[in-house]
Specification:
The complex is a heterotetramer of chains A (160), B (379), C (171) and D (100).
Chain A lengths: L10 H5 L2 H14 L23 E3 L15 H5 L5 E7 L6 E9 L8 H5 L8 E3 L14 E2 L1 H5 L10
Antiparallel strand pairs in A: 1-4, 2-3, 3-5
Chain B lengths: L1 H40 L15 H11 L10 H17 L11 E3 L2 E3 L4 E3 L2 E3 L9 H9 L2 H11 L3 H32 L4 H11 L17 H15 L11 H4 L9 H25 L14 H6 L7 H29 L5 H30 L1
Antiparallel strand pairs in B: 1-4, 2-3
Helix pairs in contact in B: 1-2, 1-10, 1-12, 2-10, 3-5, 3-10, 5-6, 6-7, 6-8, 6-13, 8-13, 10-12
Chain C lengths: L1 H24 L3 H21 L3 H25 L13 H24 L16 H12 L1 H22 L6
The chains are: A alpha+beta (160), B mainly alpha (379), C mainly alpha (171), D mainly alpha (100).
Keywords (chain B): Cell membrane, Membrane, NAD, Oxidoreductase, Quinone, Translocase, Transmembrane, Transmembrane helix, Ubiquinone
Family (chain B): Belongs to the complex I subunit 1 family.
GO biological process, one term (chain B): aerobic respiration
Chain lengths: 160, 379, 171, 100
Amino acid sequence: MSVVQRPELSLWKRLFLVELLQGMAVTFRHWWRKPTTEQYPKERPKILPRFRGIPKLQDHPDVEGILCIACNQCSIICPDDCITVLGEPRTVGKGKQAKVFILDYERCCLCGLCEEVCPTTPVPAIFMSHEYELARYKRVDLMNDMKELYEPQPTKEYLK
Amino acid sequence: MKEQLIQYLAVPMLQIAAIIGVMLLCVMYLVLWERKLIAFMQVRMGPMRVGYHGLLQPIADVVKLLLKEDVVPKAADRWVHLISPIILMIPALACFAVIPFTGTSFEVGAFTIPLVNYDVPALTVTSWVADLNIGLLYFLAISSLGVYGLVLAGWSSNSKYSMLGSLRSAAQMISYEVPLGLSIVAILMLSGTASLVGIVEAQQEAGHWWLFWAPLGVPLLWPQFIGLFLYFVAAVAETNRAPFDLPEAETELVAGFHTEYSGMKFAFMFLAEYLNMILAALIVSVLFLGGWLPVTFGIPGLSELFGNFLPFLGGAGAAITGFFWLALKVFLVLTVYLWLRATFPRYRYDQLMSLGWKWLIPMGLAHVMVTALFMLLRG
Amino acid sequence: MTEVSLPLFLVFAAVGVFGAVMMVTRTQPVHSALYLVLTLFSVAAIYVLLHAEFLAVVQILVYAGGIMVLFLFVIFLVRPPVPGEARWHGGRHVLLSAGLAVILACALGWHFLESAPAAAGNPSALLEGGNMEQVSMTLFRYYILPFETVSILLLVSMIGAIALARKGEGV
Amino acid sequence: MLTPTHVMIFSLVLFGVGVFGVLTRRNIIIVLMSLELILNAANLNFVAFSWAHPSIHGQVFALFVICVAAGEVAVGLAILITLFRNRNSVNIDEFHLMKG
């Protein structure tokens, strides 16, 4: 740590409060700048492709039936223990598929480990969506089962 | 007797009601302007939701404050806790009695109130409630009472933050009353009267605002700039506004003296603070900036043109013009007030005290003497 | 103005006496100070009725705005009264003091009222050309020496107060 | 009609209450406040007389009284604070150092 001495002000600067006026000039210039903030519910932020919103489930046209194979890896790796998966035999083909898939948004920390670990091809069955509006009126509404994870109820957009 | 009753009772009552109503509206929009201006200076937008660009935000704020629960701490002194916002509010409103808003008076002809068949005689209504001979002293005396509200609010809340905030505010207000008074003395000497109406009339007679009083005929020597500066700094400190907002330094004292206040009582304190700001701006405009005189006052040609830019309305036009110019000046002064808040960081307590006692008071004394000297030399 | 001055006076006097009595009887010093402010205010109002506008303003400015705030400050600084502590002298003492005060007031009153002056002239002469102007003219024409003496007195008391209230060295 | 007698009666009452306060209260702060009351009673008389015989001199004298009262309070409260610091009390009965 070093001690910085303030420079001694000249008489001119002290007498006419030059530095105070300079400070006021700075705020005056900012007055006329374009605001950098966005009017959130009206204007939506631009979301970049790798943005991690809440995790959701998806299927793929190349794979018949449900994409998730109920391997339980996401549930194991989840640091918050927020995923519960139960499997059943697949209706088409061999192996398992998810019968129950519950995701508790209340606990999810949006780390994305479930997506990374998901072994399904050609796309991971669980993925980080771009949805970020998590507010609900009841805590129960944050517990989402499979149906809601596939077809999320779109958040009612607050305009005006 | 009846005419006297109307002249001395009914008319002042109406004037008081009008002033209170207009001032409360002004306070509401001053708060909005403050939020907007500071937002602009911080490259934000400020309130945008209620109404076009947040124009109805003040109404929403008022409704919210009035409907809020009124919480009184268990260990509080209930009575004192209740009356301290009122004590804050009364002096702030009472000071408006001596402010002249415009120079011309309105002539109201005789008329009859229809349903009750009551004859009202012809009246002359002035824009001020009372033109006291000691108007300026009245203002100083009454505005010094606001400190009770703060001190008692802090004490009665029975909370250490409130107490610290109120003690700070009391010390601050007492200290800054002295430079406030000193900065006014020069204006008293120049005008030769303490009546606020008289002060504006003296400026009219002199042909320029007191701010531009040039002694010895030197055009750019305006000692009243020092007076204006002193008054303004002292008034900012007196109204507990940034950068002298130590009593309510939110980063140190939660909210200072009004920590334990909510709802209506808090609204009263808030209102009193902003009323005091408007009052300080009004006094600056009247003492230094020529009150209701037009901005172009003293410039030959333009002065007459803008002295009454609504000539087709006759006397009422002149009165409205006066209102307009005073309002413009007050608006500009208040904008500078808010600009200061957006610019400067808060003073430390010892810096505040040393600024008041070691700089402003000697400067005020010197200012009085310099003005007196110039007046003497001028003869 | 003259017709209403008596009822106004009675109202203010009643408020003043109420404030004074409450001030003396309250146990909480802050309440006492508040009631004293009330009394000082009514006295200022009576000054206005007696054509002493300037004095009324000075009363509010100095007493209510300065002195009483100082009192409140000191009340806050010193220890609040302990609940069980006696705040009054004993009962006999109170009775004796009350008697003494009444006797003193009666004696003074008897003397005063016997020699009470009738209004000798037109009091509104006090307001001609402005009360403040009159006071200041008198002050600086006839009382310039007392004026300067008082300023020195105030300076001395200011220095004395600072010297006394300072912590640590000296005293 | 307001007469000086009215004002004098009022000032007598204030004076009496003030004397009572000075004599009975133990809290030295309230004793000081009662003293202020007595000074105010005196001032009222000055102003009443100045009003009765239209003469400004009474008001000027009251002004001096107010100035002296301000000085008195400043010094009195400073003494009080020093006493409180040394003895940790504002009770007037505890200040009897001179008592044998």
